[in-house]
């Protein structure tokens, strides 16, 4: 077939990429056709089937995202190419983004006419020939991880479940992440076929004011942290008289353990481009910027390629879709500082200045980039905007809570079986997300707390896991929604040390412009360091709380304003661990190195010598009994011996028992 869904709306259409067809966005199987006849419908059906199964009737999909590449997806892709050639298979090899189920990376998705589509998990390059032979030659999917969709009965001895039958999939609501792991992120055509650009087309029909009204009606709140109503931000920006106006996509995702924005941008970049274009149209801007964290090069590459493709097909540039609206986008790499995620610091960075936050008001909607009205939304917010405009505000508003509508993506990391990114309706409980979707803690591990909202979030104890995930409830519990990062903390972690860890990050990332943040965070860290060394006092706890409250209320920007949350929340819920460190010189979790000692139980020791061979301080030697013993005067408490001992003969002692 010589034409594509992007070149023209059907075979009879005479338009081209240089002269785009005004109907091709809506001219698809589910919408009106510009030439409503049987031949046109048949051509479209054929093209959709080609995209589903490949031009050869069989398709092999390899996910290519940062998470899958980190686990070896590139080697798997090469193995697929080699196996297809050697086996002489007639199959199309393509790429996709990632589903967000990081625990199955790297994976393969195989589809063929007359066969159920199957996903194979944790694939090694050496597995590929066997997998392809089982599926394409023997027509057997019994070894598959899960079926993508119900297209027929699976053969083989084992029952292969549908994805919809698995809790971590069935309990999600794939609204904004619907294309992640499904479409080729580098194919504009696949995005259009999956419903892309219906939102922009509808916005053009409604007009800017009605578009803003639709976003307001949906109840969409910013998914970057503060939860400000998106439609209200757009309206305020549109109402400003100063011109030109700008829109910025905040893709500077820097929270440890948070990767939902990267996942969206790498797996479905055209949705971000469409959302930013809708935002530009709504507020009256002709120029947009996507500010991407420099440490995420694939995210930047995919967004840049999407911009170029959209521009090529007239979806960016002059007179988009014949609407009379001119709009273009530039992708900019950040300098890498965490503070660049703060909107006024981001503006300064785009302007070529030092990324320092500035006092607000005025807010960017009034005086932003180059002193002009600017609307800033994060990646997930813009993806929601594009989807809302395509599907309708009512569908979005039917999900969530009374005060916060829709869905939210959360990244669950730490002490769970199924690390990944999950999309659920706002108001879903922490327990459902952690235990039912992420699988709960591994065997032998207990959940002590969850840290929600990135490094500036709060630590919620395990007995409060039934709290709903919404802005107001989390704030009342001493945490924040943030961008959606959730770190599950096990009983093996010390909560004083956890607070110190997050404060280490935020104090290092402070820009230093304001005294409360620059000095206050260092003072707080010093107090926590004293406590973890067993040198803290009761007075230190009072000072720690006072300084935390001051930093929270007096800092210039949100980095300092939220950085004390891990300290204040652990003081609120885990005071017993603080007092144990201070009064008893005891670390209940056996973590704080200054308060613990490593010893060897000679009855358990099997004299394998692993501890001695791996000790970097040469503090372990064999004794007369033939067993091993640690010289505590030489031990640097690195814990290597504890880790490598095959029979757990190395143990920790703390407090009075360490004397």
The total of beta strands comes to 18
Distance between termini? 80 Å
Q: Tell me about the biggest sheet?
A: 5 strands, mixed
Strand order of the largest sheet: 2-1-3-4-5
**Cα-atom Rg, whole angstroms?**
28 Å
Q: How many DSSP H or I helices?
A: 25
Task: Note poorly predicted spans.
Answer: 1-5, 28-36, 151-157
How big a fraction of the residues is strand? 5-15%
Can you give the mean pLDDT? 89
Structural class of the secondary elements?
A: alpha/beta
Helicity, in percent? Answer: 25-40%
Which key features would you list for this structure?
659 residues, 5-stranded mixed beta sheet, alpha/beta, 18 strands, single chain, 25 helices, 14% strand
In short:
With 659 residues, this protein is an alpha/beta fold. It is built from 25 helices and 18 strands.
What report would you give on this structure?
This protein has 659 residues and is an alpha/beta fold. Helices cover 38% and strands 14% of the residues. The protein has 25 helices and 18 strands. It has a five-stranded mixed sheet with strand order 2-1-3-4-5, covered by helices on one side. The radius of gyration is 28 Å and the shape is globular. The protein starts with 37 loop residues before the first helix and ends in a 5-residue tail after the last strand.
Chain-wise SSE layout:
Elements: H1 38-53, E1 58-63, H2 66-70, H3 73-87, E2 92-96, E3 108-112, E4 118-120, H4 128-137, E5 146-147, H5 167-170, H6 188-193, H7 198-206, H8 208-218, H9 230-239, E6 246-251, H10 260-267, H11 269-283, E7 287-292, H12 297-312, E8 328-333, H13 343-350, E9 374-378, H14 379-391, H15 393-397, E10 407-414, E11 420-425, H16 430-437, E12 447-452, E13 458-461, H17 471-476, E14 485-490, H18 495-509, H19 515-532, H20 538-554, H21 558-562, H22 565-573, H23 575-583, E15 596-600, H24 610-614, E16 620-622, E17 628-630, H25 640-644, E18 650-654
Parallel strand pairs: 1-2, 6-7, 6-9, 7-8, 10-14
Antiparallel strand pairs: 1-3, 3-4, 4-5, 10-11, 12-13, 12-14, 15-18, 16-17
